[in-house]
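Subject line: Sequence and fold of a protein, written as structure tokens
Area: Proteins and the way their chains fold up in space.
Start of record: The labelled sequence and token lines come straight after this line.
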Amino acid sequence: MSQVITLGRRSVRPVGVVLAAYQARNYGMAPYGAAALATYLRHYCGERGYDAPCTVVAFRAGEPAPAAADTVLAHHPEVVGLSCYVWNYHQTLELAREIRRRAPGVLVVVGGPHVSRDDRLLAELLDAGVVDHCVLGEGEAAMAALVEDRVLGGRSAGRPFITGGTTDLDTLGTPYAGEPVVRPDLERHHTAIIEGARGCPFSCTFCDQGWRSARLRDLELVKRDLLLVYRLGARRVIFLDPTFNYHHARLAELMRYMREQTPGMTFNAEMKVDLLKPAEIEELADLDVVIEAGLQTSNPDTLRRIRRPEKVDRLWNNVRLLRERGAVVLINTIFGLPGENLDDWLRTVDDCYQRTDAVITATCLKVLPNTEIWNQRFEYGYEWLEADLFRAVRSNHMTPEEFTVAERLARLLAFLQTGEQPIPARLRASIDQTCGGSLSRFLVGFEAGELRLHPDGTIVSAVQAVGG
């Protein structure tokens, strides 16, 4: 099924726009990016006296392309923008084919963070006339120009790939002000998304943010958005900022504002935890925050290889201080990084376990277009599954069998930690006693059937479990 929101303004020549996005599997939130783009288009066209009624449509992951096309074309659009991510890549391209088959005159535009010039399938669709344009990078200016061209009677000929350019973040508004498609999530879950920055001051090779320079949205606009969603009922905010804390003065002012103007609001943010100052740690803990610490690996050689500057000892210390003050911390790890095998990742897991009591997350490396890893994919011998989030399945250093084992161990690790709660103290004590303080030894032993979990939360050998 789909969610739909339509906005409009009277004009001489209205041009209907539909922005469509498939949601990720097991992820039901509305498409924030498409809603934010619709907000931008409404503002852009309104300032110029154009009328471009814009409909935002969200599809669940399993929605068949014909049914999705029915919903899109029911609004009689002249322009269709499709949001392409690694989680909806093939579905999005199939939807483009279905729309073109049934509506030859519609302008079909594909955009998103993982659209690239060397994408073979997209190039084929452009050559076949299924897709008219692919937008590289930020989409606001490019989509506004394409819509404006249609409003003025143009056909946007040529330029199969359009570079979106750098958006002035201060021209962006929150979609919660006028896009009902995002309001049900806020009302059900009391959660809202805020975009305060784009780009990143760091250039980690696996990430699709480092290619664009870090830019900050005016802090007063961020405060305004926070107050708006708070008044609408949001009590948790997810900041999209790739590195939330790299500007210390801004962080301090934002935390002060939240304490005074949005009491009781919690927030999630990705932070460079090793950069946190003692005073910031105190203030963050007071705000009831969920911090994602992107360690990825504790191996110094790998950190240099992926160009991630990380003072690991300082990270351990700051995580410990945050946890002592009650903050929720998730330490992110990645298996399959360049030059690493299964044992290398397990050593990072053990480091996280032994040096902190934070939640440890584990994900497989994604060979993402528009990243340095993508450019290095042949150098490191990566193979990946386009149909499964571009997830790596082989490298020069890690066999397919090791990737499979790591996937199973990652699921077990997630099972042992419920939500934002780390490994329970009783199980931790048993791991320390039975496995010599090695979490990886327990994970591997459990996965191999050599160890079992007793109902009381302690570890027993498989032989003891049978005998008991």
Observations:
- The first strand starts at residue 2 and ends at 7.
- The mean pLDDT is 90.
